[in-house]
Amino acid sequence: MLLREGDARDDVVDRWLAAMLAAAAGALNAIAFSVFGFFSANMTGNVSALSIGVATGRISTAVFYFGIILAFVLGAALRTLVLAYGRQHGLRGIYALCLAAEGTGIVLLGLWARAWLPGHVASAVTVVALAFLLGFQNAIVTRISDARIRTTHVSGMLTDIGIGVALLATSRAQWVHKSDSARTRLALHLGTVGAFLAGGVVGLLGYQVVGAYFISVCGLLLVAIAGPYVLRAGAVSN
User: What is the enclosing helix (H) or strand (E) of 88?
Assistant: First the structure.
């Protein structure tokens, strides 16, 4: 699931990976919005909020939204640099290592937030840090799936769902292969959006029960997903 990329991957693997990572991202995004009032992964909304802040002269608000967006971009950029390093040095498990690093960062962030929340500064740091880590995650899954999967936002996937439904509705018997391909992509996108939605529900309920510790729970999920592949890559290398 984390050792192959692009065309070497199969649809079942992509669906499982997309569902698990989307659930974690949905939980973190819902927590960030419900608890702190800001999205940590929805950059479309954050860019709109930035433009509103600039237009209305609320510079401090605009600067904060810019910080969230910049953190997301930097997370994606760092992941790209780490991947390039891993490929250059023949690290077969680089994707798994990146996901394990992200999960560890989220675990530590949850522990930090539990100690320092509430407070304006702590809330701001938590949201910006989550944006950085989710940008890192989105770049991981985008690259490994050859851009078939996005797990931290759903606008593009909802568009793809609409396209997929239309393709299936208009397909003819002689287009069986095309229909099968559309059905596969539709299942992938529906599953990803559903997992993001379910993750948001579970994330908020979990936060209400255990507080910021649930952020760490999301991180532990990612570490658990990545761990076996880190070990397997090491065994293969040896």
Answer: helix 59-88
d(C-alpha 64, C-alpha 53), whole Å: 10
Cα(19)–Cα(156) distance, integer angstroms? 16
Give the residue carrying structure tokens 């997929």: 164
pTM score over 0.90: no
Q: Where are the alpha helices (DSSP H) in the chain?
A: 11-31, 43-56, 59-88, 94-116, 120-144, 155-170, 176-210, 213-237
The tens place of each residue's pLDDT in the chain, 238 residues long, gives 665 665 555 677 778 888 999 999 999 999 999 988 888 888 888 999 999 999 999 999 999 999 999 999 999 999 889 988 888 887 878 888 999 999 999 999 999 988 887 778 888 899 999 999 999 988 877 777 766 677 777 877 888 888 888 877 776 544 445 556 778 888 888 999 999 999 999 999 999 999 999 999 999 999 999 988 888 876 445 4
CA 24/CA 196 separation, integer angstroms: 7
Distance from C-alpha of 9 to C-alpha of 184, rounded to nearest angstrom: 13
Domain 6-237 has CATH 3.40.1350: no
Element (H, E) at 76: helix 59-88
Determine the Cα–Cα distance for residues 207 and 114; give it in Å rounded to an integer: 11
Burial of 122 (0-12, 13-18, 19+ CB in 10 A): middle
Half-sphere exposure of residue 167, counting CA atoms within 13 Å on the CB side? 18
CB 16 within 8 A of CB 1: yes
